[in-house]
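Let us practice reading a record.
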Amino acid sequence: MKSEEILQKARRVIEEEAREILRLSERLEDSFVRAVELILSCEGKVITTGVGKSGHIAQKIASTLSSTGTPAHFLHPSEALHGDLGVIEGKDVVLALSNSGESEEVVALLPYIKLIGAKLISITNNPNSTLAKHSEVHILLGVKKEACPMNLAPTTSSTTALVLGDALAMVLLELRGFTEKDFALRHPAGALGRKLKLVKELCHTGDEVPIVKETDPMGKVIVEMTSKGFGAVAVVKEDGTLCGIITDGDLRRFINRKGDLNDSVAMDVMTKNPKTAKMEELAAEALRRMEDYKITVLIVVDDDRKPIGIIHMHDILRAGVIY
């Protein structure tokens, strides 16, 4: 088989599945809305289940839901019938996937789900199936043909179910007001974890923070700045609130203006109203602010605008944070 023939066959599969996904978008109806509302009002967790390819998709949907603010757990139907049913509680929602809607292992769970009192949402390709008929909400995939040339191997149907699961998870994410900070709490490892680190994880606090009062002489300011090693010092008012910052650049500019460091105080040299950061914000956002304003350090302040930390661009870059 020639290279171009191989590519044509691959493109056919991709194009057929893409068309079916677009058709799914057009087919979405009130059942999807009711599924979202049922999960959103759920006081427990979402239990996904399915066998074969549907089981793999159900596992992925559970993982996506859990990482985006909707607690979820995958339950293999065969294991459920051998003791694992105990994971389902009456306050839960079960999300069952089956292309035919007649998978024996999944159908066998139905009386027990009802007995426990959990609500059932099903995703199938058969609106008249046993699973569909016994669900509080049934979402129809409506796939006409698999990408498999024999129309046997689950391909288009499993891809469409996966996309539908992503749609559920992302709609729920937005309705819950799920934020990047929430995401960071669930993804502490790897490149994603580094990207989602918070300022409080990387900044310097306590005695490491260089601070002077606005009336302190510049001799004291320079000692404080050089001893802490950040090339900057926070300037505060008598009540401790931040009113300025002095950096190496501020010193150079003051000297270039013929200023006399021996006869000056902090307020004479400082830059007023400096850019700041908050402990709970993403380090990536702090890095973006530094690059936008061409600065290398931010004073971390509390809600009363009092300095409680300092973060340098090098702290963020060393941690591998990107945005």
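A brief commentary: The chain has a mean pLDDT of 92.
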